[in-house]
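Write out a record, fold above all:
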Amino acid sequence: MADPSPTPDPKLEAGAYEVIRTRLTKHADELRRRVDLLNTDRKNLFGGIETTLAATVRLTTENNCVPRDLAAIGPQRFVFGYNVHLGLRSQMQVTDVFAIYDYHPEDHTFHPNKEGLLADPKFAEDFDYLYRYYKNASFLKFHRIGPHLYMAMQVGREISEVKVFKWLVDDERGSIQYLGNRFDHEFVFPVGQEFEWKRARREMYRDGVHPHVSIEDRVFVETVGGDLTIKIENNTASGKGIYSEPVDNADQTLDDAEFHYAVIGNLILLKILPYQEKSYRHLLFNERTQEVHRLDSIAESCVLLPDDHGIIFPKGYALQTGDLKTFDTGLPDMRFDRRIASSNGEDTLFIFHHVESGAYLLFSYNLIEQSVGTPLISNGYSLFPTGELILFQGDPEPRKHHVIQVWTTPYLSDGAASARSQSNGSFLSKIGNADIVRCMAECRGVLTLLAKEDSFSGLYVELSRRSGDVIDSYFWIDKPEAHQLKDTLIEIKSAAEAALGEFEKVRRMRKSARDQTDQLRARVSKLINEASGSDSSDII
């Protein structure tokens, strides 16, 4: 009698899985095509601006000076700050340190402003007093908080010893009003890290032959046995992990080290201080890709990307999807200065600053492409409401002529962006640019998952969830004007759910094949060892 439930043919099961994978690849191509069409329509309607270099010009100052910073104070006006050597004169004047320039976009030129916007008697008095009382005073940087502009003056040997002048800025008129010099306590920078480090508690320690610390039962770390090891299995019988690096003191116990962590979605940040070491080690573990990277540059600054996409730090960025990119800028450790979101919701500008040298590092993150463009490095920047970005490269030697770059960027004010868009009462104009951008960004996230190998932990569960979220969140994606994104997303969700079941079968088959291979390898090794220890005369 035939077996009523014959064992499935492994070849057929693997073949079914490959068919579904091929189907997902075709759906990915179709989704990408429709998203690109929607993006083209969006740019035609609302306007799309790429970050490009518009001009390189020179700005001339009255004195030989070392530029330090600049800041926008109007639609096409900025204040320039620098330091000069007095020479034969005994007292510094306001015009020796600050100047206001007007920018003429038609020919990309800069001209000194003649309106005397800095000629406030109280400011001149406070400025004179500062330079008389602090012999080594120098201009440090501008800092903008809301409508207020702070001029930070270094008055001591330490960079933290500052006095500030505070102004109220009217960006529409391009005018400023002096408010005084008693606001040092307001001159504060944003937090360098937008998350809280948690220290591992004693109940998180797991004893055994190879003890470790359990980070919320998601990853396991230890610094014993001569190395720092990251493990993904709660197995204290083995010291093997997915990542290791040597420590200075090989004889330390688990209690000798400090372990701190922060969880940001799939990303788990680790801050570890092995025994008798001076500096913390910073590592990034991605739970989905099960990869570990050493990222010490997050120590000074590490902030969150929009819409929980991941993190960005002075030397690169890391996404929840596992993508990691680092930049060799050659700059020292920098701290987060500010972020600027574009009015279209598509781009975010992250600015990092090194106060001692005055260097700025600008990263532009695109929500749709989920990537950062080439970093811009400067010694000062000014962003106008029209989206034009002014950058200058400082020189340690005093000069009268200074190189200035003018960039066009998507960081327009709301008013300037409204003037560029062509709201014609169409379906897409009623939806709005920001909502379309968010939808496209989520579709790009689905495409990123579709490009992953099935070694990506929980790939098909995440793919089904992400596709379903887009379908449920945007009512308009089934419309012809949106190129009927919903149809393709439904196909992807259905195929992902089918792949989930088939993948479990294939995974079991792969495990069985690995086990059989390991057994065969052990048997062959045993036979080789026996043969190598036998006398050749025993061979028949």
